[in-house]
Design a protein that fits this description.
Chains A, B: InterPro entries: DNA-bd_HTH_TetR-type_CS, Homeodomain-like_sf, HTH-type_TetR-like_transc_reg, HTH_TetR, Rv0078-like_C. Chains A, B: Keywords: DNA-binding, Transcription, Transcription regulation. Chains A, B: GO terms for molecular function: DNA-binding transcription factor activity; transcription cis-regulatory region binding. Chains A, B: This is TetR family transcriptional regulator. Two copies of one chain form a homodimer. With 205 residues, chain A is mostly helical. In chain A, 77% of the residues lie in helices and 0% in strands. Chain A is elongated and about 75 Å long. The first copy, chain A, starts with 11 loop residues before the first helix and ends in a 7-residue tail after the last helix. Chains A and B meet through α6, α8 and α9 of A and α6, α8 and α9 of B. Chain A binds a DNA duplex (30 and 30 nucleotides) through α3.
Chain lengths: 205, 205
DNA sequence: CACGAAACATACGCTGTGTATGTGAATGCA
DNA sequence: TGCATTCACATACACAGCGTATGTTTCGTG
């Protein structure tokens, strides 16, 4: 089928969105390396010209997809966290939301499996600074200040916690649908145990 | 300078080794994506033909480099662990060796930064099964059986621990030489604290 | 109703991988 | 000792896929 010729100015935003949808699907199903811009374009009956009109290049397209997925996740986590009573409970609630999100293939694959390949380690690190990591770091900072976490430099603690969550994300990304619920709960259990263990037990005065 | 023509059968192994050396240096200094097989070949005054004679392709070359680096690390960790009295102390000692190894740029860059890009997530996971992860998993299994670690499924606990170590590796990979000692000790402290916290405290009977 | 300008499509070049083929030196063998 | 074979590469070629430069259609605007 030949490309459609009568795309109008008003459809611009729709085209961009359709490209993001198509790219997301391709990246999730076949991975970053195996998807061509040609593929993405023809999926919406357009050409690579359309892609390069809306995005600076292949990795920029991935970044846009990544941004969409991460922003949505970030939103959900913060939303739920705000409903909790204490910072500690906010964190626990946020983890549950996060783990649920990791059960959706699009999140797990894009963020934890493909992103390192597509963006390279440094770029990814810079991006995460704006999304998930910033939330974790802020939480750790607050909890340390409240005395609920032991006195350690915030940076390594945050990095470690961030990657602990990431471990669950990566694991769930490759778990078959049938087992995903069980594995999710296993990780939830281990993480809760871990956090409880490191939580500072204050003496009742 | 033109390629050398008089390479003899006896030099074959030397050529292979030289290619690995050159590749390692290139991958560490410029990253996987930015290094060409042409670069690697000319570094030892050969052509890409030599590379394709010894290795199946670019990613296979990286795998060989990866194997070299990981095997050496594995060896050191196990060696030191064997000297410890108890399994728990063996683990702690192994962690110290591992963190020292992470301070060497070649290890941190190859294993923690470039490997995901070069091999993709799945391939890397399969490889790690044979190296670092297997050691961690075996340790966790043993410690759980001894009752030193709480009763959790071995798989998620091992994955999480593995990635906690990985966090330190990644962090050290991008830490400037001047700060590396300090950061190393920060991570060592946090990890020790973490492990001590989750260790099962048994009642003295 | 010319006249941009947005929103693409088409055409091209270039880099780097992989592969197929060529070549000289050593080695086995009659 | 001559010749064939094989190893260890070098050379040459094909091709995929990214990026870029340029063309074309449609619509808003004066």
């Amino acid at each position: 089928m030949p490309p459609v010729r009568n795309r109008r100015a008003q459809h611009s935003e729709a085209t961009r969105s359709a490209l993001l949808d198509a790219a997301l699907r391709r990246f999730v199903e076949h991975g970053y390396a195996a998807t061509t811009l040609e593929d993405v374009a023809t999926d919406i009956r357009a050409t690579r010209g359309a892609v390069y009109h809306h995005f600076a290049g292949k990795s920029a397209l991935f970044e846009a997809v990544f941004d969409r997925v991460e922003t949505e996740t970030f939103r959900r986590v913060v939303e739920r966290g705000a409903q909790a009573g204490t910072p500690w409970d906010a964190m626990l609630a946020g983890i549950e939301v996060f783990l649920d999100r990791c059960c959706e293939p699009e999140y797990a694959r894009i963020v934890w499996q493909e992103a390192p390949v597509a963006l390279g380690w440094h770029r990814l690190r810079n991006l995460e600074e704006r999304y998930a990591y910033s939330v974790v770091a802020e939480t750790v900072r607050a909890l340390t200040e409240l005395g609920e976490l032991p006195e350690h430099p915030v940076e390594p603690v945050s990095r470690i916690m961030f990657n602990v969550f990431g471990t669950a994300g990566m694991a769930l990304a490759e778990t078959p649908d049938a087992d995903r619920g069980r594995v999710r709960d296993e990780y939830a259990g281990v993480i809760r145990h871990l956090l409880t263990s490191v939580r500072v037990r204050r003496e009742r005065s």
